[in-house]
# Entry
Amino acid sequence: MRKLILFPIYFYAAIRHTRLIKLLGPVDLLIGKIFERFPIKTNFNFKLFMRHPLNLYLLLNGYHERDITVIVLNILKEGDLCIDVGAHCGYYTLLFSKIVKEKGVVISFEPDKNNLSLLISNVKLNKCNNVKIYPYAVSDNDSFAILSVDEKTGFDSYIMEATKSNIDSKILMVKTIKLDSLNYEKPVNLLKLDVQGNEVRVLKGSHKVLRNTKYVIFEYCPDMIVKRTKENPLLVFEILSKNNFNLYLIKNERFIKLNKLDKNEFEKLTYELLMNGSYAHILAIKNY
# Structure
């Protein structure tokens, strides 16, 4: 019955992956604005206001990013401390909060003011009193930086270099902070990163944190790292390996699979992703 009621939305979601979406630009914008006015119920005992088009898929499925969600549900437990860097509107922040409960702590970072507004609203809506929100961009220094703001979806807001060619872009001056600059009351069970190419700099500013972190999960897009920060993406493997992490490629198949990556395999994956301009989800597990 539910699928029958939601059939028009399933149909529209399918159209969004075709060329027809270009003809439906104004309609897509209108639908997005309508859905953003209502909190979407998830499968995990919380609901949230979400920006388009993620709100559409959240409504249809009840979850976001099946692979990462499944892993989070298996590695977090009550009382844990976890950090959400690049929290967007708060899906993972709220998921973490519900799992770790009142004995746990969730620390969230989100510099995009539009995302931040929804993140704060969602935390209040769900009465997540164990969440601490910082309106900062996490990096390798405690300073200020220019944030290129993705006004449409908020997915692709990122730290950028100011040049004559992009000075007219929608930009925002934000405060940056190293994870090492905060004091944590207990070891970190999970550090989640979704920083649109700033991964190397985040890790450079997290040496003390990484020594006391059990899991790191992140979206790895070497193309963004090279183009947006001019950092070597292979430093991701180097920094995590030096901190005694083993890296695993997350395979989102019928059953979630983890393929361990040695240095050569990570380099091969990096080359493939660079050639395709694509990304992968990676889990790093501390080798005690």
Q: What stands out?
A: The mean pLDDT is 89. The longest helix spans residues 263-276. DSSP finds twelve helices and 14 strands in the chain. The longest strand covers residues 213-220.
